[in-house]
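Shapes recur. Our protein:

. . .
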Amino acid sequence: QVQLVESGGGLVQAGGSLTLSCTASGSRFSIYGMGWGRQAPGMRRELVATITSGLSTNYADSVKGRFTISRDNAKNTVYLQMNSLKPEDTAVYYCHADPIGLPRGGDFGSWGQGTQVTVSS
């Protein structure tokens, strides 16, 4: 199982931007499908952005047009650029890795420990 470490969370005002980073251990990072999920208090964790091993991306409707996921295989790192942040984006954000190359979320693959993002109004 790959180990994932997130960074870049914090407190930001509505309309602001943050970039999250997730660095993975291991030597086969490029074959993994990667994603970012989030979980707000009392809510289920949901995948909001994914990028396959083939670099195809997909976004939840709630973040489409505002968030951008990217990866740097040479650095074993996946990023989530978050723009035009809203108070409803407040959540713990988790990095996800799936060895089949397509991020499935849920009980599949690995999840990081999470990083808190708080958006004030």
